[in-house]
Design brief:
alpha/beta; 6-stranded mixed sheet; two-stranded antiparallel sheet; 11 helices; elongated; binds guanosine-5'-triphosphate; binds magnesium ion
């Protein structure tokens, strides 16, 4: 069982692994171009929906959005992938965001047709737009909404799901588990008929420079950066650090360990046996030898976090301003 170990019995690292900021920086040409396209299109939208990952509600939102895109129009923050985080903490997250000035927060799972947050999004959107000053667009009967956010948070999936829910039309936009699937500002996609609501998909855009290493590592763990740019072993090491720090020990069984361990090399080597991830190499004397494929094991460990196999996790749990925030770390 994952909970049989007592976190107090171990002296785990207290500090986040050090990583060069260069590894956590990703601002390719399509992001720069996309941002400019988005700024140009802003005039013709009624509302901006910012999608972010519910595992990091207080971390990694792009400040460029706040400064240039969301200030000018009504704004809804959709915290997506709620299925991967701790359900009981959602109300506290919402309260904290509200106290920080984010008025409209909705939690969604864009892979679930029956998600309550998805159901509530359309009426909420219509309400917010109706009650807003539409400036140059007051004559328009159609509603136009821009979907923005950092890469891989589920922007395209959200549009697809709304479209198939409301109009019974199957998926229109490409989605994928790696960052950077949507590369340019797309044509408008209709997601509702009465009233006509159109959504504008956009490429995920990161901050041009990393302001905080742990924030960059959290974004990497949530796949907002491409894994190979950061390094799979580095991402796995941050994951291990986080899991140990928070007494979340499902990884112990998953990696075939006897007890929690804070050394990523040992974890990956042991994991290579449990997960059967070995590489064949030829020795200097010509003999074939099997060696642990640590990069592949790191990938498997990261994937297990991303699919929820290592537990439902709120990576920002330390940023929750509540005395009782530690009570539900283990889901
Ligand atoms: N578990 C879970 N996975 C989701 C959810 N929404 C999207 N995904 C997955 O997350 C990955 C990214 O989804 P996309 O819709 O391509 O994300 P995006 O924000 O459009 O990504 P970019 O276009 O690269 O910026 C895909 O593998 C989706 O299947 C969700 O609510 N829960
Ligand atoms: Mg996309």
């Amino acid at each position: 069982m994952a909970t049989k170990f007592d976190v107090a019995a171990y002296s785990f690292r207290k500090k986040c692994p050090y990583v060069s900021k260069d590894l956590l920086h990703w601002f390719p040409g399509h992001m720069n171009k996309g941002l400019k396209q988005m700024q140009r299109k802003l005039k013709s939208v009624d509302c901006v929906i910012e999608v972010h990952d519910a595992r990091i509600p207080f971390t990694g939102r792009n400040p460029i959005f706040t400064n240039t895109l969301t200030g000018a129009k009504p704004h809804i923050l959709v915290l997506n992938k709620k299925d991967l985080t701790i359900r009981s903490l959602l109300p506290k997250i919402k309260d904290q965001l509200t106290s920080e000035g984010v008025q409209n927060v909705i939690f969604t799972n864009s892979k679930d047709q029956h998600c309550r947050g998805l159901k509530s999004l359309r009426p909420r959107l219509v309400d917010i737009i109706k009650n807003s000053n539409r400036y140059n667009r007051s004559e328009e009967l159609d509603y136009s909404v821009m979907i923005i956010g950092v890469p891989n948070v589920g922007k395209s999936s959200l549009i697809n799901m709304l479209r198939s829910r409301n109009m019974n039309i199957k998926h229109a936009l490409p989605v994928g588990a790696v960052a950077g699937i949507t590369r340019s500002v797309m044509t408008k996609i209709r997601i509702n008929n009465d009233p006509k609501i159109f959504m504008l998909d956009t490429p995920g855009i990161l901050e041009p420079s990393v302001s905080d290493i742990e924030m960059g590592l959290k974004l990497a763990l949530c796949a907002s950066l491409q894994d190979h740019l950061v390094g799979e072993e580095i991402i796995a090491d941050y994951l291990l650090y986080w899991l140990n720090k928070h007494g979340s020990f499902k990884y112990v069984d998953f990696m075939g360990l006897e007890e929690p361990c804070d050394d990523i090399n040992k974890v990956l080597v042991t994991g290579s046996i449990k997960l059967n991830r070995v590489r064949r190499t030829r020795d200097f004397d010509g003999r074939i030898r099997e060696v642990p494929d640590v990069v592949e094991v790191a990938r498997t460990m990261i994937r297990a976090f991303r699919t929820g196999e290592l537990g439902k996790i709120l990576l920002d749990i330390d940023l929750l301003k509540r005395d009782d925030r530690q009570e539900n770390v283990l889901a």
